[in-house]
Specification:
Length: 268
């Protein structure tokens, strides 16, 4: 089901590109924006360029984000590249402002869906996720900041009016991502389990978060329990729950929102 949503998100992004942004030479964010740029000034197809440019960062994601996220990212990159190749470039409206607004907004919906279901659209998404894990910056804000270079390229290659439209498109994409995908929200997870050592070892290898462990016992059973406490991002909760259930089907997991984090909450 998650893979299907990732594919759907890729289709939405490709639709936003080919029907709103590409016809006016408006760039998108990240590697996809660079692929659009190269597709406009070279004979190569945007979809093919997107695939080639993303492969090195997908490999980085495998080592830093884990197998599940990387598989979904690869599915997204291949799906997006395929849809960009297959969908025709159609100018829906003659109004460049409308194309910018709808292209940026619809593209942000697609990327937000992809991120929300344990994937990335590749490229700068991977770098933004890695930075957000050790900072309080949101994914959308990081992507907007890193994409400043694309705005400059757009201004130099085309004209500065197009660059301003590109900036507006990137901003709207980032805002829509943050509306759908709340990765920057920090959560505290309390895990009460009898398999604390096994879960701890797996979490430290997979999540890169600090863990505080205390001892307790069941109020009814009087059975000794380990209580693991972690501060994580919303993006990581699904993976953590999967790890916990792998070792202890009966573990109790309590998740609540964290108002503020003061200090480092990684394990390195």
């Amino acid at each position: 089901m998650k893979n299907l949503i990732v594919v759907l998100g890729s289709l939405i992004v490709a639709f936003a590109f080919n029907f709103f942004l590409v016809p006016f030479g408006i760039l998108s964010s990240g590697i996809s924006g660079i692929a659009i740029l190269l597709g406009l000034i070279t004979p190569f197809n945007t979809g093919l360029l997107n695939l080639v440019l993303n492969l090195p960062l997908v490999i980085l994601g495998y080592y830093k984000l884990g197998k599940t996220i990387t598989i979904n990212t690869l599915i997204c990159v291949v799906s997006l590249s395929t849809f960009l190749y297959l969908l025709p470039v159609v100018q829906v409206t003659d109004n460049i402002l409308l194309s910018t607004v709808f292209g940026g907004g619809i593209g942000g919906i697609g990327v937000g869906l992809i991120l929300k279901h344990s994937g990335t659209s590749g490229g700068l998404d991977i770098i933004a996720i890695l930075i957000s894990r050790t900072s309080s910056f949101s994914i959308g804000l990081l992507l907007t900041g890193m994409n400043g270079i694309i705005v400059l390229i757009s201004g130099v290659v085309f004209d500065w009016e197009k660059a301003l439209y590109t900036l507006l498109s990137i901003y709207l994409t980032g805002k829509m991502i943050d509306t759908i995908f709340t990765n920057h929200v920090k959560l505290t997870m309390q895990i009460v389990t009898s398999k604390g050592v096994l879960i701890r070892n797996d979490l430290l290898q997979s999540i890169y978060r600090g863990i505080t462990i205390t001892e307790g016992y069941g109020g009814y059973t009087q059975e000794k329990k380990d209580i693991l406490m972690m501060v994580v991002t919303r993006y990581e909760t699904l993976q953590i729950k999967q790890i916990v259930r792998k070792y202890d089907e009966h573990a109790f997991i309590n998740i609540f929102e964290t108002v503020e984090v003061d200090g480092k909450f990684t394990n390195n």
